[in-house]
Amino acid sequence: MELYKEKTAIVGIGVVPFSTDIGRTEWYTACQAVKLAVDDAGLDMKRVDGLVKNVDDGPDQMYVQKGLGMDNLTYTAESHWGTSPMMNAITAVASGSVNYAVYYQTAHRASGPEKSISDFRVAREMREDLLDLIRADFYTPFGLIGQPGYVGMTIRRYMHEFNVTPEQMGWVPVVCSENAARNTEAVFFDKSITIQDYINSKVVVDPIRELDCAPKVDGSIAIIVTTLENAKSLRHPPAIIMAATQGTSSEGQFFTSYMRDTITELPEMQFVADELYRVAGIGAKDVKVAQLDDSFAPLVPMQLEALGFCDRGEGAAFCEGGDRIRNGGQLPLNTAGGALGQGRFDSARIVEAVRQVRGTSANQVKDADMVLSVSGAGGPADGLILRRQ
């Protein structure tokens, strides 16, 4: 990891605004996001020579290359889970394999993907599902169906173990909604909620409420990584990548790691934190802003504990009242609204981290010179730390 420390930076971001019915194909919006990122960086499209993506999200690199008229790609790659493809982009640039790597994530989860260009992907996903029959054999027949149920098992135990109340849990979606209400790009712009709205919201699977669940959206994001030397001639000051890593652990499953001795911890996230802090040479106290995985709001307190911002069992109390996690508080969280306010899109956390470092966020935090972004709470995790030049 030290070989890549502070040798790369994010220099361009492109966002196709999220919606619940985007009215365009995934191919179109993927190409649109890449072009927006290239324009944001002040680059010529012909200088981009690497494309990376999530395995499950968006059209193949070949289609994006065709759509944008690229003819000089020297590197393509795919990865599972969260924002882990960023590691491919970072390592490709740091190793000298490419000059400008673009990570793009495109997903039309609200209106449905464009099947005509994704048939091979659908077939692959079906094959992978057949390889993992644990849930089909041991969970689903007994009523444990879908992600809210999977997460609900863990959160119910967490609440019991640490005497956590629903009111304490509710402050994460409340603060995220407040941030989203000031972000014109968010699906829930100008639609903040109160703690009473949260308590009154429908229980999906006890103790998970409707307002605990990030909504599905359509959208596309692209992020450009290059070397610090290349970044000097581009449009924006670089968001320097201090450290980036992934984390896995034994007995791990996506949201269903019930075979562990303790199910109320996120060891993958703790491994990410330990490695990020070690490589960056900092501690949790040095992080000014954090973009955490709020696909399900109750996982945020557990992340605060795993990432070293508070002791075990104190995450919910850390969030209670909202003051410590608001802008101006001890640790501002998910300042663009997070997945709860913007819509469920992993790479949006990195975009907001870049905006905080640049000083261009809709909810700009004062002196946000070091920002943490993580994904993968409840499963394989990943993260990075960005800083100002």
Brief summary:
With 389 residues, the protein is of the alpha/beta class. It has 15 helices and eleven strands.
Give the tags.
single chain, 389 residues, alpha/beta, Peroxisomal Thiolase, Chain A, domain 1, nine-stranded mixed beta sheet, globular
Supply Rg. 20 Å
Strand line-up across the major sheet: 3-2-4-7-1-8-11-10-9
List the total number of helices.
Answer: 15
Strand content: 15-25%
CATH superfamily of the largest domain: Thiolase/Chalcone synthase
Write down the overall mean pLDDT.
Answer: 90
Order of helices and strands: EHEHEHEHHHHHHEEEHEHEHHHHEE
Please estimate the helix content: 25-40%
CATH class descriptor of the largest domain: Alpha Beta
- Overall geometric form: globular
Q: In angstroms, what separates the terminal alpha carbons? A: 20 Å
Count of discrete structural domains: 2
SS-based class: alpha/beta
Per CATH, what is the topology of the largest domain? Peroxisomal Thiolase, Chain A, domain 1
